[in-house]
Amino acid sequence: MTETLDLTAAIYSKTAAGQQEIQSRSLGLSPLVRRILVLVDGKRSGRDLSAFVSGSDDIEQILGALLSQGCVAAEAPSKAAVPAARAAAPAASAAPESAGTTAGAPPGLPAAETRTAKDNEMARHFMINSINSIIGQHMRVSLIHDIFHAESTQALRTIYHAWEASMAGHGMGAKRLPELREKLFKVL
Protein backbone atom coordinates (compact mmCIF):
# COMPACT_ATOMS: atom_id res chain seq x y z
CA MET A 1 0.00 0.00 0.00
CA THR A 2 1.44 3.38 -0.95
CA GLU A 3 1.55 6.12 1.62
CA THR A 4 -0.23 9.33 0.60
CA LEU A 5 1.34 12.63 1.50
CA ASP A 6 -0.59 14.92 3.83
CA LEU A 7 -0.25 18.27 2.03
CA THR A 8 -0.73 20.31 5.21
CA ALA A 9 1.82 18.35 7.26
CA ALA A 10 4.48 18.13 4.53
CA ILE A 11 7.47 20.47 4.52
CA TYR A 12 7.94 22.38 1.25
CA SER A 13 11.08 23.54 -0.50
CA LYS A 14 11.56 25.30 -3.82
CA THR A 15 12.86 23.32 -6.77
CA ALA A 16 15.15 24.74 -9.45
CA ALA A 17 12.00 25.34 -11.51
CA GLY A 18 10.49 27.23 -8.59
CA GLN A 19 13.57 29.42 -8.24
CA GLN A 20 13.45 30.08 -11.98
CA GLU A 21 9.74 30.96 -11.79
CA ILE A 22 10.42 33.57 -9.12
CA GLN A 23 12.94 35.22 -11.43
CA SER A 24 11.12 34.88 -14.76
CA ARG A 25 7.39 34.79 -13.90
CA SER A 26 6.98 32.62 -17.00
CA LEU A 27 4.18 30.40 -15.66
CA GLY A 28 1.77 33.27 -15.05
CA LEU A 29 0.99 32.27 -11.46
CA SER A 30 -1.73 34.21 -9.68
CA PRO A 31 -0.48 36.68 -7.05
CA LEU A 32 -1.58 34.41 -4.21
CA VAL A 33 0.08 31.29 -5.64
CA ARG A 34 3.24 33.29 -6.35
CA ARG A 35 3.24 34.63 -2.78
CA ILE A 36 3.05 31.09 -1.40
CA LEU A 37 5.89 30.04 -3.72
CA VAL A 38 8.03 32.93 -2.45
CA LEU A 39 7.27 31.95 1.16
CA VAL A 40 8.30 28.32 0.64
CA ASP A 41 11.65 28.00 2.42
CA GLY A 42 12.27 24.32 3.17
CA LYS A 43 11.21 24.80 6.80
CA ARG A 44 7.49 25.64 6.61
CA SER A 45 4.77 23.03 6.41
CA GLY A 46 1.53 23.42 4.51
CA ARG A 47 -0.11 24.22 7.84
CA ASP A 48 2.42 27.03 8.41
CA LEU A 49 1.86 28.40 4.91
CA SER A 50 -1.92 28.36 5.37
CA ALA A 51 -1.53 31.33 7.75
CA PHE A 52 -0.70 33.43 4.69
CA VAL A 53 -3.90 32.47 2.85
CA SER A 54 -7.25 34.14 3.43
CA GLY A 55 -10.16 32.04 4.65
CA SER A 56 -11.76 31.46 1.24
CA ASP A 57 -8.60 30.10 -0.40
CA ASP A 58 -7.50 26.49 -0.03
CA ILE A 59 -3.82 25.95 0.78
CA GLU A 60 -3.97 22.33 -0.35
CA GLN A 61 -5.18 23.42 -3.80
CA ILE A 62 -2.42 26.03 -4.06
CA LEU A 63 0.29 23.61 -2.94
CA GLY A 64 -1.08 20.95 -5.28
CA ALA A 65 -0.80 23.38 -8.19
CA LEU A 66 2.79 24.28 -7.25
CA LEU A 67 3.65 20.57 -6.92
CA SER A 68 2.10 19.71 -10.29
CA GLN A 69 4.05 22.50 -11.99
CA GLY A 70 7.27 21.30 -10.38
CA CYS A 71 7.89 24.56 -8.50
CA VAL A 72 8.04 22.94 -5.07
CA ALA A 73 8.94 19.60 -3.58
CA ALA A 74 7.14 18.13 -0.59
CA GLU A 75 8.79 16.09 2.11
CA ALA A 76 6.98 14.26 4.88
CA PRO A 77 7.93 15.67 8.29
CA SER A 78 10.55 13.61 10.07
CA LYS A 79 9.17 11.24 12.67
CA ALA A 80 11.39 12.86 15.32
CA ALA A 81 9.82 16.26 14.62
CA VAL A 82 6.25 14.99 14.88
CA PRO A 83 6.38 13.99 18.59
CA ALA A 84 8.13 17.27 19.42
CA ALA A 85 5.42 19.21 17.62
CA ARG A 86 2.72 17.21 19.39
CA ALA A 87 4.39 17.80 22.74
CA ALA A 88 4.55 21.53 22.04
CA ALA A 89 0.88 21.68 21.02
CA PRO A 90 -0.55 21.07 24.51
CA ALA A 91 1.82 23.64 25.97
CA ALA A 92 0.66 26.20 23.42
CA SER A 93 -2.99 25.42 24.04
CA ALA A 94 -2.45 25.68 27.79
CA ALA A 95 -1.51 29.36 27.41
CA PRO A 96 -4.36 31.53 28.64
CA GLU A 97 -6.58 33.01 25.94
CA SER A 98 -6.61 36.30 27.82
CA ALA A 99 -2.86 36.66 27.30
CA GLY A 100 -3.51 37.21 23.58
CA THR A 101 -1.69 34.05 22.53
CA THR A 102 -4.31 32.65 20.19
CA ALA A 103 -3.40 30.63 17.12
CA GLY A 104 -1.77 32.79 14.48
CA ALA A 105 -1.28 35.80 16.75
CA PRO A 106 2.16 37.21 17.45
CA PRO A 107 3.25 36.43 21.02
CA GLY A 108 3.18 38.98 23.81
CA LEU A 109 0.18 41.02 22.72
CA PRO A 110 -2.69 42.04 24.99
CA ALA A 111 -5.94 40.09 24.78
CA ALA A 112 -7.88 40.70 21.57
CA GLU A 113 -10.96 41.51 23.65
CA THR A 114 -9.22 44.60 25.07
CA ARG A 115 -8.65 46.12 21.64
CA THR A 116 -11.17 48.71 20.45
CA ALA A 117 -12.51 49.34 16.96
CA LYS A 118 -10.27 52.41 16.85
CA ASP A 119 -7.22 50.24 17.67
CA ASN A 120 -8.17 47.87 14.84
CA GLU A 121 -8.58 50.75 12.41
CA MET A 122 -5.21 52.20 13.44
CA ALA A 123 -3.54 48.79 13.04
CA ARG A 124 -5.14 48.31 9.61
CA HIS A 125 -3.99 51.74 8.44
CA PHE A 126 -0.50 51.24 9.84
CA MET A 127 -0.07 47.89 8.08
CA ILE A 128 -1.39 49.18 4.74
CA ASN A 129 0.58 52.44 4.88
CA SER A 130 3.84 50.70 5.78
CA ILE A 131 3.47 48.31 2.83
CA ASN A 132 2.58 51.13 0.43
CA SER A 133 5.38 53.43 1.55
CA ILE A 134 8.20 50.88 1.86
CA ILE A 135 7.39 48.19 -0.69
CA GLY A 136 5.36 50.34 -3.08
CA GLN A 137 1.76 50.82 -4.00
CA HIS A 138 0.13 48.02 -5.95
CA MET A 139 2.91 45.56 -5.06
CA ARG A 140 1.11 43.51 -2.44
CA VAL A 141 -2.49 43.97 -3.56
CA SER A 142 -3.84 40.70 -2.16
CA LEU A 143 -2.20 41.36 1.22
CA ILE A 144 -3.54 44.90 1.34
CA HIS A 145 -6.98 43.53 0.42
CA ASP A 146 -6.79 41.00 3.28
CA ILE A 147 -5.69 43.68 5.76
CA PHE A 148 -8.39 46.10 4.63
CA HIS A 149 -11.12 43.48 5.03
CA ALA A 150 -9.93 42.15 8.41
CA GLU A 151 -12.86 42.94 10.68
CA SER A 152 -11.48 41.84 14.03
CA THR A 153 -8.31 42.05 16.07
CA GLN A 154 -7.81 38.30 15.69
CA ALA A 155 -8.10 38.56 11.89
CA LEU A 156 -5.47 41.33 11.87
CA ARG A 157 -3.20 39.27 14.11
CA THR A 158 -3.47 36.33 11.73
CA ILE A 159 -2.59 38.54 8.74
CA TYR A 160 0.33 39.99 10.72
CA HIS A 161 2.57 37.07 9.70
CA ALA A 162 2.05 37.78 5.99
CA TRP A 163 2.72 41.49 6.63
CA GLU A 164 5.90 40.64 8.53
CA ALA A 165 7.09 38.27 5.76
CA SER A 166 6.47 40.95 3.12
CA MET A 167 8.39 43.54 5.09
CA ALA A 168 11.25 41.14 5.84
CA GLY A 169 11.50 40.25 2.14
CA HIS A 170 12.22 43.84 1.15
CA GLY A 171 15.60 45.49 1.83
CA MET A 172 14.33 48.67 3.48
CA GLY A 173 11.46 46.82 5.15
CA ALA A 174 13.87 44.33 6.70
CA LYS A 175 15.99 47.16 8.11
CA ARG A 176 12.99 48.93 9.59
CA LEU A 177 11.06 45.81 10.68
CA PRO A 178 11.97 45.97 14.42
CA GLU A 179 10.87 49.62 14.61
CA LEU A 180 7.70 49.00 12.59
CA ARG A 181 6.82 45.89 14.59
CA GLU A 182 7.15 47.83 17.85
CA LYS A 183 4.86 50.59 16.59
CA LEU A 184 2.32 48.12 15.22
CA PHE A 185 2.20 46.13 18.46
CA LYS A 186 1.00 49.25 20.30
CA VAL A 187 -2.31 49.07 18.43
CA LEU A 188 -2.47 45.40 17.38
Main attributes?
188 residues, two-stranded antiparallel sheet, 2 strands, mainly alpha
Tell me about this structure.
- The structure is a single chain.
- The chain is mainly alpha-helical.
- It has helices spanning 16-24, 31-39, 46-49, 59-68, 81-94, 117-135, 141-148, 153-168, 171-185; strands spanning 11-14, 72-75.
- Strands 1-2 form a two-stranded antiparallel ribbon.
- α2 (31-39) crosses α4 and α6 packs antiparallel against α9 (171-185).
- Residues 80-102 have low confidence and may be disordered.
Overall, the morphology is globular
N to C succession of SSEs = EHHHHEHHHHH
Major sheet: order of its strands? 1-2
Rg result: 17 Å
Q: In brief, what are we looking at here?
A:
The chain is mainly alpha-helical.
Question: How do the helices and strands line up, and which of them pair or pack?
Answer:
Blueprint: E1 11-14, H1 16-24, H2 31-39, H3 46-49, H4 59-68, E2 72-75, H5 81-94, H6 117-135, H7 141-148, H8 153-168, H9 171-185
Antiparallel strand pairs: 1-2
